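hey can u run this one w/ iron/sulfur cluster bound, need the structure tokens asap thx
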Amino acid sequence: MRTVSHRFGPGLADPWDDVRVSTTWVEPSGTATALLLLGRGSDPGAERGVSCPGALPAPSDPDLVERARVAREKLGDDLFVLGHHYQRDEVIQFADVTGDSFKLAQQAAARPQARWIVFCGVHFMAESADILTADHQQVILPDLAAGCSMADMAALSQVETAWEHLTDLGLADRTVPVTYMNSSAAIKAFVGRRGGLVCTSSNAKRALEWAFERGDKVLFLPDQHLGRNTAVLQLGMSLSDCVVWDPHQPHGGLSEADLARARMVLWRGHCSVHGRFTLDCVTEVRQRVPGVQVLVHPECRYEVVEAADHVGSTEQIIRTIREAPPGSAWAVGTELNLVRRLAHEHPDKQVMFLDRTVCYCSTMNRIDLPHLVWSLEELVAGRVVNRIQVDPDTAHYARVALDRMLALP
Ligand code: 13P
Ligand code: SF4
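ok here u go:
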């Protein structure tokens, strides 16, 4: 492995002397901690993006904004553009509706007159939109490489293996599977077939209550943090009621007794963006900014959520900042595009990022203006590119799980 050091001229100490930066990188083996790599085929059973085949406009093209505006105008009411709150500003300006995953799923279903839904978000969201929209509507993801590393952490084959083990132990009948929206259509269908439902970060508590009315154990996929935070901090369970199923270990790395006594079997998945916030970030910002309130997303680790003042989905975070009194200070633990936008929209409040290092969601950021312009101009030319289409059987059972969520009180 080669290392590099940086030279700073005669007489100057090299501040990097103690830091050796590796310039070669070896793909990790399939250990418990290795992240699956988007587009590398490291796990063909998981949801993932592929590279974009299009002839994209250059990012430097000064006419991109005008081109997007013109294409949008030509497409008129046939087009409906949805934008998740973590999208770039350059993209969000063209969204007809912005929202968190729950609101966007509702909105996708509520615009039957639109022939084309251009989804500025990630792959699992576009899949859900395809499932919830009518047959004459087509859903387009401007860049197919916009996947989600969390969704990729639960492959269908792994989840089936876990369920078989619960069945062998005689526990599956009493277990209700619940999957976070951030999962592939195949996982949602798995859950729908087995009497479970989908949840989002804004209705996870109600979804778990629904599940515990029907069983005494939940298999929660794929975000261990949302599952644990909801069970312990909102439903009053104890940490010892939760166990973590590691798909890379035999039997999830759990004993029969662990599984028998657990109420929450949490999948070992996490968000690579929200998982970066640590307890140190909370302690540091409280010392640095007296009176600051810490507001985090429930995909953050348990100890971070426990130490925060408020927790909520992206929609709830936006509402909290909007309703906060002028002069108040907020350290927000969620994706950076959203935090920057909130800071910009509320100059009378001090809105800052909870971590001091940059934390964009790299796959959300793949949807940029060149990809949006390309997908819109192709539609104007009569070509549908990057269509997201879920096969009918998967779509049917995934819809069962989504409809159970949409019907929650
Ligand atoms: P929500 O949109 O449900 O808040 O989820 C956040 C997220 O990580 C989306 O990918
Ligand atoms: Fe996935 Fe996290 Fe990005 Fe959301 S923010 S798309 S959960 S990696």
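The longest helix spans residues 392-406. anyway lmk if its weird
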